[in-house]
């Protein structure tokens, strides 16, 4: 076989490897205009091989990610790196976003071909979903799905910061179920967990859109009421007590549940850095005072 035939055969093999590679691949201009694409990229974007060449990658990028993609491309032109990674979202023909990682190499002009970019485009949607799930688990209670103590503290601080900027009031309710230990002792912990989850559902039903409920641990819950005067929070307390009049149902057994609630309140002018501890402390003291009154 002649040298020309060998070179031609080698080129054909390389092109076949590019075309049928299991991961999305593309050759683009230095400005991100597609010149060549493989079949995996076409499948990823839901487009035909004929539709993509001549299209700018920025036109395929989610609008919220375009500025970042443009900055990444501009930095690549400056540094001309052999490997540049960038994460963004592309849009399929049906408008659905797909999360991708784009690994790009700069190729200098050579042999009559202008400088260009070679890209490997990996679908990272599953990885992003796992990461989002882990982030959610880290700040949410697994039993009730409510924010946990970590997220409660974060959201409370944000609420106090906004209240300080806007001059609005913030209230916090600390909530503790009365006699919950007796429920666990009588019916068992799995039944107690069902009661906690059901209580969280009724608590959520009592909230306004701007309120945030959290489970702090055990049978202790809390609610952040932004832009709320004490009478607004007291209205929430009344709604919650009304929702608890109906006993919970455990396989046909009615289980009455009551709760003690304490209210903490800060004015908008309160220093946000010191407000959280004061607010929680006031609400806690009033919640235990309410519990003592109920026992007496």
Question: How would you explain this protein's 3D organization?
Answer:
- The protein has 10 helices and 11 strands.
- The chain has 2 domains: 3-131, 2-Layer Sandwich (Beta-Lactamase), CATH 3.30.450.20; 140-295, Reverse transcriptase/Diguanylate cyclase domain (Alpha-Beta Plaits).
- Helix 6 crosses helix 10 (272-295) and helix 7 crosses helix 8 (189-206).
- The protein has helices at 3-20, 39-45, 57-60, 66-79, 125-139, 149-166, 180-187, 189-206, 230-243, 272-295, and strands at 24-28, 34-37, 84-91, 97-107, 116-123, 170-178, 211-217, 220-226, 248-250, 253-255, 258-266.
- The longest helix is centred in the C-terminal third of the chain and has 24 residues, at 272-295.
- Residues 10-67 form the PAS domain.
CATH topology type of the largest domain:
Alpha-Beta Plaits
Helix and strand sequence:
HEEHHHEEEHHEHHEEHEEEH
Largest sheet, strands/sense/barrel: 5 strands, antiparallel
- What structural class is derived from the secondary structure elements? alpha+beta
Number of domains: 2
Shape: elongated
Architecture per CATH nomenclature, i.e. the level-2 architecture of the largest domain: 2-Layer Sandwich
Helical segment count: 10
Give the CATH class of the largest domain: Alpha Beta
Which bin fits the share of residues in helices?
A: 40-55%
Spell out the CATH superfamily of the largest domain: Reverse transcriptase/Diguanylate cyclase domain
Low-confidence region ranges: none
| Rg from alpha-carbon coordinates | 29 Å
Output mean pLDDT. Answer: 90
Q: Which strand order do you get reading across the main beta sheet?
A: 2-1-5-4-3
Write down how many β-strands occur, each being a DSSP E stretch of 2 or more residues.
11
Organism: Geodermatophilus obscurus
InterPro entries: Biofilm_reg_signaling (IPR052155), GGDEF_dom (IPR000160), Nucleotide_cyclase (IPR029787), PAS (IPR000014), PAS-assoc_C (IPR000700), PAS-like_dom_sf (IPR035965), Rev_trsase/Diguanyl_cyclase (IPR043128)
Protein name: PAS domain S-box-containing protein/diguanylate cyclase (GGDEF) domain-containing protein
């Amino acid at each position: 076989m002649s040298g020309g035939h060998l070179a031609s055969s080698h080129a054909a093999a390389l092109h076949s490897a590019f075309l049928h590679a299991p991961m999305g691949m593309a050759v683009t201009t230095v400005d991100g205009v597609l010149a060549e694409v493989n079949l995996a990229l076409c499948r990823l974007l839901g487009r035909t091989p004929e539709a993509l060449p001549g299209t700018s990658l920025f036109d395929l990028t989610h609008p919220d990610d375009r500025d970042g993609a443009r900055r990444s491309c501009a930095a690549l032109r400056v540094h001309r790196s052999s490997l540049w990674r960038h994460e963004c979202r592309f849009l399929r023909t049906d408008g659905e976003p797909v999360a991708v990682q784009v690994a790009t190499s700069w190729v200098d002009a050579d042999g009559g071909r202008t400088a260009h970019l070679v890209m490997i485009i990996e679908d990272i949607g599953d990885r992003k979903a796992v990461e989002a799930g882990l982030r959610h688990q880290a700040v949410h209670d697994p039993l009730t799905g409510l924010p946990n103590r970590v997220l409660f503290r974060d959201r409370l601080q944000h609420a106090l910061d906004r209240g300080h900027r806007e001059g609005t009031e913030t209230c916090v309710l600390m909530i503790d179920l009365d006699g919950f230990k007796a429920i666990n002792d009588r019916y068992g912990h799995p039944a107690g967990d069902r009661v906690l989850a059901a209580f969280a559902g009724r608590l959520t039903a009592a909230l306004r859109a701007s309120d945030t409920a959290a489970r702090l641990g055990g049978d202790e819950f809390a609610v952040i009421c932004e832009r709320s005067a004490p009478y607004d929070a007291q209205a929430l307390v009344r709604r919650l007590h009304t929702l608890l009049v109906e006993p919970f149902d455990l396989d046909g057994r009615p289980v009455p549940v009551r709760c003690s609630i304490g209210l903490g309140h800060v004015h908008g002018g309160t220093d946000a850095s010191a407000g959280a501890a004061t607010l929680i402390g006031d609400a806690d003291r009033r919640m235990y005072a309410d519990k003592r009154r109920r026992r007496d």
